[in-house]
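Deoxyribonuclease
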Amino acid sequence: MYCFFDTHTHLDYVQESTQTPLAQLIDNASAVGIQKILIVAVFRENFKTIEKMTALFPEQLRYGLGLHPLYIRQHQQSDLDLLAKQLARKDPLCTAIAEIGLERAIPELVEDDLWRKQCEYLEAQLQLAKQFHLPINLHSRKSHEQLFSFLKRIQLPKCGVVHGFAGSYDQAKRFVDLGYKIGVGGTITYARANKTRQTIAKLPLDALLLETDSPDMPVFGFQGQPNRPERLYHVFQSLCALRSESPEHIADTIWKNSQIFS
């Protein structure tokens, strides 16, 4: 059996939406070879919850703390202060600053004040990543150009991943050339997602990570249901169909790539 690492989940929300015990979610994932799962935060209310979840299963779970741009209206300076305080504890199970980034697909979040705030919070969290030598797990919707500018200017000792990537090959390659990985999720399981599928087929294999974004980003055939980590295997199968390398080589390379979040 291959070994996999689901490098982007909201497992607290999976548990909530499916009413499935955490142990069962982990067993279901293990049954298809998923050895490790990263749980990411979106606002301060997640911090304690995912820290406690991870502590219950320290072999299988890792977590990242961060303030997501979708919730920029809610975030306050005290949230950044709390984030810095939590990171300063240096919990070995906290292996990322996540989920952070930029959001330009929602018009009101691009209005002057909120866009300025998005940029300020991204900048602050990139500086924390630099300070604590942690990789980042990045959200980017219609914001690849702006995000690239931040990442080029603030060069991190450990880069991270642009998660759920759905841009062009040229956009992806610019991130890869900076040292970032590209997160491959359920999008590639849809035949109509031509641009993303072609991009993922062309990128270097050592630039790719696998993820589910559970309970979001459903894979083909499971639309309308909360996504779950075990469905990473469907993403892997779709990736193998797009690539020329053997499944063994793909699985082994991506497992090694994923260790940035171990």
